[in-house]
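Q:
Just now I want nothing more than another pair of eyes on a protein record. Here is the record:
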Amino acid sequence: MQGKLLAGLMIAAIAGSAAAQPTSDTAKSSPTPASVADAPSAIVDMDAITVTGVQPGPGLWKFHKGDRVLWILGTLSPLPKNITWVSDDVNAAIAASGVALQGPGLAVTADIGLFGRLSLLPSLFKLRKNPNGTKLQEALPPDLYARWQALKVKYIGKDRTSENWRPVFAANELYQAALEKNGLAESGVIGPVLDKAVKAAGIEKQSTTFTIKIDDPKQTLKDFNASTLDDVQCFCKTLDRLETDLAVMKTRANAWAGGDIDTLRTLPYDDQGLACLSALTDSGFTQKLGIENIQAEMARQWYRTVDDALQEHKVVFAAVPISQLLKSDGVVAKLQAKGYEVESP
């Protein structure tokens, strides 16, 4: 099995999706699968409550061309962590499909065995740390560091471990702690339900991940540990979101859980994920790997996989971030340009 490298490096960035914008007009109908994206420095206490219990989630987008049908679930992160998502439409769509495509993603791999992975552990432990022992306070403008300190006390407490980390990793640590304290979770709601439905249908679950293979992982990690990242924007956007967007984040999560697409269309979506992904993938470190415009490559890989799946199967199920379905130049527009008719929930 290929050893996954830099997984911690990528996880902070990949979870986010592109900022959502109002959608273009699309035909609306209820699909029936059974039949076939400068903030104030003050921290505001948010009293919005996340929903709990059994929730239906959003309806599905149906794309069809000729005798081919593509059902798409719009996913969201974070979601209320104490909900049980139950969707008869999703179960029926998966049962009618020949394959279930996973959401777009990015993986970094290398052909190394167990001993090779073990030999990399010392370098992996250094990934989060600033090069040359630089402290977080030294890597950030004073006003930004002051905002960090206030949020850190609120969500992380007195632990000073992250004071040695690169801004992109410190930001992710803070973000995860804030989600936990606000009843939200980045994973664990959608995935298990889809896995269960795929298993019940007896169909294949297929990755759409864009994979980067590293030929010399030890040197790659060494280069990364010595490199400087342009990750202050990622850090700032994460703080902005925690200072101003938590209430909206909860509203957005509740809307997804209740299947309220109209509310999701109206909510702003300023996700820090793209800034954090860019900090990791637009650096001199990745340029040495010959990697250009990873976001576009990830999208191209997803569309290629969809095209191939629909060549082989008459009905295909897929999942993408719902922001990509709601933005005017996103998945809906691109599939319409390919000749698909669309019915949105």
